Amino acid sequence: MKKLFLTYVLLFLSSAGLFAQRQPYVILISLDGFRWDYVNRGITPNFDSIKANGVAAISLRPDFPSITFPNHYSIVTGMYPENQGLIANTFTDPFTKETYRVNDSTKSKNAKWYLGEAFWETAKRNGIITASYFWPGSDMKLDYRRPDYVESYVHTRAFEDRVNGVINWLKLPYEKRPHFITLYFEATDDSGHKFGPNSIQMNHAIEKEDSMIGLLTNKLKNISLLDSTDIIVVSDHGMTEVSKDKVVNIEEIIKNYNVTYQGRGPFMLVNPQKADEQNVYDKLLSNRNHFQVFTKDNIPACYHYSTHPFISDIIVIADLGWSLADNYSYKNIDKFTDRGNHGYDNNEMDMNGIFYAFGPDFKIGYRTATLNNIDIYPMLCRIFNITPRSNIDGKLENIEYILKGY
User: Fold this and answer.
1) Model confidence over 184-234: pLDDT tens digits?
2) 376 φ, ψ (degrees, to nearest 5)
3) What is the C-alpha separation between 79 and 100, in angstroms, rounded?
């Protein structure tokens, strides 16, 4: 009788949340444009520490196109851009003529563009408090699709303030404290574009971001949460050198046709009149020099870039280090050509980013080959012991071996 009574008491406490298992803490950090090999320059002591005490992948493969918003959203949804909705940083809905732009907050915060379910949404449905100190898609206008705590992106926000913001969330009373947090830094992307990946300025950016990892871990230690927190450091893509001497004017090649263009630089979406589609494609194919051209029907399956209705009929992808232009951008090469860029074939090593992780759920001193960013979402679900969405592209079996107990 006493044993039966104790069982009822335990069931009551569990259902009331008074005897619930403590949730893990996970901080997902993005270093925008941090190429896979930047850690080999001898200026990243905190990455060296993670490598010794956690998991280090050779690289993290982005999705195509290897640009910022699509890949950040793929990381937290486990879906390719063709399925999660963000097919580029700027693109147009051909049916409504509305255009999504990352630098237009009225567009980028509109939830209709985001078709995937971000991990913070999955977590919230499972009673997990979440927070985001910057992440593409985290500040969309629908309350129920946002993390519980959100900081909208401010480019000038000091890096130290971002770290302190995360720590302040973790100092909240336990019942209000987030257990999943995203954190974002953009120094390596800024320096890569402006000065190139092999510049002194890039080295300074690498050192700065590495120091932020050290600052965060020290502050977690000071509040006695370091040993119970998983820290995952990723990047959305890499970076490669570009030059204004390596530019192809796509509009000049097909100047005899009525065509609209989206994008420039590493890839371009080309929309001819339906009657001219084959002629435009043939013209580009016969003049192919420093670029590849595909239709939605024949683009290689490895790109996973064909099913979304907003993807244009013709996709042009520049060779690594080359840039594509229309007439306007070609005439203004100095304005539109940086020293470094990304967005190329995601299988190019220069486009690969990083994956480093340590904490109670990760193996120690474990090196692994290249990981895919779409597999991070199911891994997060595994860490929190919750069920992922059934329509994701990522696969837990591709990444779970880096976790303890595998």
Assistant:
1) 999 999 999 999 999 999 999 999 999 999 999 999 999 999 999 999 999
2) -70, -40
3) 19
Residue 217 is inside which H or E element, if any?
A: helix 200-222
Q: What is the DSSP letter of 190?
A: H
Task: Indicate where the chain has its CATH 3.40.720.10 domain(s).
Answer: 22-240+347-402
**Is 168 exposed, middle or buried (CB count within 10 Å of its CB: 0-12, 13-18, 19+)?**
exposed
The tens digit of pLDDT for each residue in 3-47 reads 444 444 444 443 444 444 569 999 999 999 999 999 999 999 999
- The Cα–Cα gap between 303 and 299 comes to 7
* 132 alpha carbon, distance to own chain's centre: 14
Rg of the chain (C-alpha set): 23
Q: Catalytic residue positions?
A: 68
Please give the Cα distance from 84 to 97 (Å, whole number). 19
DSSP string, 40-65: GSS--HHHHHHHHHSEEES-EE-PSS
Choose among 37, 133, 118: nearest CA to 72.
Answer: 118
Q: Contact at 8 Å (CB) between 269 and 250?
A: no
Comma-separated ranges of CATH 3.30.1360.180 domains in the chain: 247-337
pTM of the full predicted structure?
0.94
The rounded distance, in Å, linking the Cα atoms of 38 and 50 is: 15
- Give domain 247-337's CATH architecture: 2-Layer Sandwich (3.30)
Domain 22-240+347-402: CATH class, spelled out: alpha beta
Q: CA 76 → CA 278, 312, 380, distances in Å? A: 37, 25, 9
Where do we find the tokens 């979304």?
A: 308
